[in-house]
Each structure stands twice: as C-alpha cells, then as structure tokens.
Design brief:
Number of helices: 0
Oligomer: single chain
Shape: elongated
Helix content: under 10%
Structural class: mainly beta
Number of strands: 12
Strand content: over 45%
Order of helices and strands: EEEEEEEEEEEE
C-alpha cells in the first residue's frame, strides 16, 4: 500500500506515524528507521488483533474501501477475499492484502467488512 507520512512521533521508544492513503488515514507503529514527514512509502500493513465476527468484525454498510481513525480505534473497510473455518482470513483494502485471524464467521467471501483495529504496524517494503 502506498502511504504518505503526515506526522512522526517517538513514544516509549516506538515510532508512531500518522499516514494517509488513497483510501483514508490512520496512526500506526512504524517498524523501521524513522521516516521523513511528507515522504511516500510502499508498506505492508500488519494487524495483530484477533477478530471475532459480531464483536470487532462486521458486514460493512460502506460501499468503498476506507481506513479511518476515531477515538484511538482504526476502522478498516475492505473486501473479505477468503475465509476458512480455522480462522484464517484475507482482506483486500485498497489493493493491499491484510492477513487476519477471524473467528465465528462462516466461509463467506467477496463481501465488504468493517474491522475495528487497536494495533496497526507498518513495514516499508523497500519498493
């Protein structure tokens, strides 16, 4: 996913970045040497949360992929590409693929879902 760095903060030895994309904005932990404000990077998004259908994962009422932040929670809206009964799921968000653990959801795919995310990490790909 292509992001633009809007703000960089060092908090308790971790680098946090506010970033924007073509589908929205959020704050994440930056997992590399600190970036420069205004620079663009290709990154992988990593979400460490476990998702439970009906608790922090739902069918979306949105009609497009988005990333938004409010009250410290990131809401990611994307297309659930695949989902298996063991809890492995793949979500496409604006062309970026995110692998998640999703519990309690039947084997559905190709639907828009909202994910309420507490912790987002970004890793620059070097591309």
């Amino acid at each position: 996913m292509k992001i633009t760095i809007d703000l960089v903060n060092l908090i308790d030895k971790e680098v946090f970045v506010e970033f924007s994309t073509n589908v929205g904005f959020a704050v994440a932990v930056w997992r590399a040497a600190p970036p420069k404000v205004g620079d663009q990077y290709d990154v992988e998004l990593e979400v460490e949360d476990e998702f439970v259908w009906g608790d922090n994962a739902y069918y979306s009422l949105n009609s497009a992929h988005t990333i938004e932040m409010a009250d410290g929670i990131v809401t990611v809206t994307g297309t659930l590409i695949s989902n298996d009964m063991e809890g492995g799921a793949v979500v496409d968000v604006g062309g970026a693929i995110i692998l998640i653990e999703l519990i309690g959801c039947g084997e559905i795919d190709s639907v828009l879902v909202d994910l309420k995310v507490k912790d987002v990490n970004v890793f620059p790909t070097g591309i």
